[in-house]
Amino acid sequence: MRSWSAPEIPSLPGAGLPLRLYDTSARGVRDTSPGPKARMYVCGITPYDATHLGHANTYLAFDLANRMWRDAGHEVHFTQNATDVDDPLLERAEQTGVDWRELAEREIELYRTDMEALRIVPPDDYVGVTEVVGQVAELIGRLKDKGATYQVDDDVYFSVAAAPKFGAVSGYPEERMLELFAERGGDPERPGKRHPLDWLLWRAERPGEPSWASPLGPGRPGWHVECTTIALNRLGSGFDVSGGGSDLIFPHHEMGASEGHVATGEWPFAKAYVHAGMVGLDGEKMSKSRGNLVFVSRLRAEHDPMAVRLALLAHHYREDWEWTGDQIVSATERLARWRAAFACPAGPDALPVLRRVRERMTDDLDAPGALAAIDDWAARAVAGEGGDAGAPALVRATADSLLGIAL
Fold first, then answer.
1. Cα(275)–Cα(41) distance, rounded to whole angstroms?
2. How far apart are CA 315 and CA 325, in angstroms?
């Protein structure tokens, strides 16, 4: 699947610092410690509606991680999927009378343009689930050979009893798991299942639904095994970061980790599980099911995309926060202050700013702290402090390279 155009990222003097991130499975901030090439998988969209600010908040977080690794001298292998066949997509297509393939492609294209406008570094592998159905079926076959699957009617399920590390990612008690599983696409009460938390790997063909021929019989993949397959085939087991919104901690990342563990015999499936906070509107999480969305495409049509990015950067990526209209106003004002400062013929020494931004961003992506460092320099530059003619260009490059703000 086609990705989107990559932004140019300026190089900076000196060496970047090691990146530390909050690992959900470790319940704390820890070093990411990649090798020469950092490997990251970030779960992508289900394209039945336009990209909203909750999506943008998540993908911006992992864009920052990507940039900090690059600044520290690592190559980055970044993989992302698009769940271009799934129940919500099929339901929306039926409601609107649009072919599900046409709907998926339309919304994926809008997502591409949104990500490009926000200067998100594109994935090296952007993979649609419909492109890898055969690979998914092959992985399910491996799980079957290991005795980890069983059938309910013609559907194939993963047996939670076969997963010795199940629960290690989320740390949730079973009662909480059951609650979230029912809320987030699971079927804990389906008759015939061995355990309520067993999950669907392969959905047998239903009338009127798309399906693919496979050794499992005609059908289509379940949700969690899609990402497991793509991550294993593109990155291999033990990759550095598995990322997404905090609503993916359970069941999605928990179940994917167990699939990868059982299929390969290796643990952990990902070295760290990193999650962005939820964005709310009117007191509730922003989501398509609630219909309380602020779409990125509409926001950037009315405002500079860099102001939109600055509005997101004003919040720590792990924070749950609520969108209000005054935030884009504040971000636009900040953008104007920075532009005025960078237009100054000289300014205070920029190297302490670069050092401070690196320190803040490598400490679990403290973007608000990084913004404050540039704010302080900009105020002093506009006030006429300092006489370093090269300082405005270096601070501008710092904002561009590490924060993704092009001015």
1. 12
2. 15
